[in-house]
Specification:
This protein has 328 residues and is of the alpha/beta class. The chain has 2 domains: 9-102 and 295-314, 3-Layer(aba) Sandwich (Rossmann fold), CATH 3.40.50; 104-286, 3-Layer(aba) Sandwich (Rossmann fold). The protein is built from 9 helices and 12 strands. The strands form 2 sheets. Strands 8-7-6-9-10-11-12 form a 7-stranded parallel beta sheet, with helices on both faces. Helix 1 (19-23) links the parallel strand 1 (9-12) and strand 2. The protein is elongated, with a radius of gyration of 23 Å. The model has no long low-confidence stretch (mean pLDDT 93). Keywords: NAD, Oxidoreductase. This is Dihydrofolate reductase. One of its GO terms (molecular function) is NAD binding. Residues 145-290 form the D-isomer specific 2-hydroxyacid dehydrogenase NAD-binding domain.
């Protein structure tokens, strides 16, 4: 990759979706196309800046720094909030920024949809004729099965941009919000109670939402001992990373009714192998990692990339820098 002393080289592994956004930097950047979904995305040549995102290739990166990484870029912008799908050496000795909060709105809407479906159960009410319609109405009228979000306790494990977006929408439904932050609380969040421990969170939550990044400390944190003290009948929702949960322990816990149901948008691995119990378990709603999808997510990321490039070229601090020690 040719490079001049005055113009940084940017390796774009995110394809055409950033094409027009990068054109505005013509003359200030040398933009080189690359790939992240095949081959070796760590072959970065002399690039100063790398735009990349999660991919199977990155997930299979070597544990040690490959020779083709060289000194590595000075700055890596990742198109996701989590950085667990990248090798540890990518995070070292450089600026790494992520897409923190870009998908907070669609994820929050996914969570509220899951909570409402669990309480209202309208997705299973499908009368196939007048007689079934009348019988369903009679049964529900005599013994209402429809629940409510009002007054329910929402437990949030993780309270970053996504957790805040979920909490705001949950409060609009009259839910009581209890949240646990691993980094502690710097101030009071309106309408949010701080949990003192994970044990308190799982004991008290009617709906427990996992919204924390995957790090060595959080891998498998929802295991047998945690599930054993969860509130009976609890609804567990995972929109973060599948590896936060011990999946074998979850299957045993679901059969015991603690929790009572799980909505899982993420699993470990993705997809699960054929015949895995999650596909057919009556107490699991499984979706294929789509909670992040929304009409404005790419626009928000594009805005972030433009802003961070401007800041980089001007020598100003970048937005949403990843702490390599914490892993998020």
């Amino acid at each position: 990759m040719p490079q001049t002393a005055s113009v940084p080289v940017l390796l774009n592994q995110l394809g055409d979706r950033l094409g027009h956004d990068l054109e505005r930097f013509q003359g200030r950047l040398s933009v080189v196309p690359g790939r992240r979904d095949g081959g070796a995305p760590w072959d970065v040549g002399e690039a100063d800046i790398l735009l990349t995102g999660p991919s199977p290739a990155w997930a299979g990166a070597p544990r040690e720094v490959p020779e083709s990484w060289g000194r590595g870029p000075r700055w890596v912008q990742i198109a996701s909030a989590g950085v667990d799908g990248f090798p540890e050496w990518l995070l070292r000795d450089r600026l790494v920024t992520c897409g923190r909060g870009d998908a907070a709105v669609p994820i929050a809407e996914y969570v509220l949809t899951a909570l409402l479906l669990h309480e209202k159960r309208i997705d299973i009410l499908r009368p196939d004729g007048p007689a079934a319609w009348l019988e369903t109405a009679r049964k529900l009228g005599d013994n209402p099965a429809s629940g409510t979000l009002e007054g329910r306790r929402l437990g949030l494990f993780g309270f970053g941009a996504t957790g805040r977006a979920i909490a705001g929408r949950a409060r609009a439904f009259g839910m009581r919000v209890l949240a646990l932050r691993r980094t502690g609380w710097s101030g009071v969040e309106e309408g949010v109670e701080a949990a003192s421990s994970l044990e308190q969170l799982v004991k008290e939550a009617d709906h427990l939402v996992l919204a924390a990044p995957l790090t060595p400390e959080t891998r498998g944190i929802i295991g047998a001992s945690v599930l054993a003290v969860s509130k009976p009948g609890q609804h567990l929702v995972n929109i973060a990373r599948g590896a936060l949960i011990d999946q074998e322990a979850l299957l045993r816990a679901l059969d015991a009714g603690r929790p009572g149901f799980a909505t899982l948008d993420v699993t470990d691995p993705e997809p699960l192998p054929p015949g895995h119990p999650f596909y057919s378990h009556p107490r699991i709603r499984l979706t294929p990692h789509i909670c992040w999808s929304g009409p404005d997510v790419r626009r928000r990321f594009s805005d972030r990339v433009r802003e961070n490039i401007e800041r980089y070229l001007d020598g100003r601090p970048l937005l949403d820098i990843v702490d390599p020690l914490r892993g998020y």
